[in-house]
Fold this sequence. Notes:
Shape: globular
CATH topology: Rossmann fold
CATH class: Alpha Beta
Low-confidence stretches: none
CATH superfamily: Hypothetical protein TT1679
Number of domains: 1
Helix content: 25-40%
Radius of gyration: 18 Å
Number of strands: 9
Mean pLDDT: 94
Order of helices and strands: HEHHEEHEHEEEEE
Oligomer: single chain
Number of helices: 5
Distance between the termini: 65 Å
Amino acid sequence: MDEARLQAIAQDTxxxxxxxxxxxxxxxxxxxxxxxxxxxxxxxxxxxxGTTEVAAAIYAGIEAVRREIGFHPVFQCCEHLNRAxxxxxxxxxxxxxxxxxxxxxxxxxxxxxAYAYRRLQDACLVESVQAHAGLDIGDxxxxxxxxxxxxxxxxxxxxxxxxxVTMARTRPKLIGGARAVYxxxxxxxxxxxxx
Length: 195
């Protein structure tokens, strides 16, 4: 693939991640799950033509925003590893995630997860997460790894390469009924007591 196309993939990915981070109010330490089919990005059927160079371009776009915000990227593996996820050990420990034993490779895990596993600092594989937001490049179905109430976010970039892009943020469940209050008004707050 030529350098101009790879750069466009990186730029489109970065734009999507920035838009999602803004819409989700993504903060340092929160989880962003990414599912990416590099095969779909190059116009092939998912799982048939994974490419490390496309994975590197996608990773670069994500990393540009991660460095600024400080979220934890979480990369979903393919079905051959039961959609396990690549994370840093720091994130796994912080969120109490269950580690599993496997090393993703392009043929079992996918090119994106394999690339991320080798680039993230102290990477490990975990069974599942409940991420604060998600980016799906190529219809990889990341919904199982989002918190329970997912809200679609419409990206300005609808495709990365040839792959369809879907994004979601999450929010806490609204519990209660007609009498429930979801925001504390400023006048209802008690003044801070000094000790």
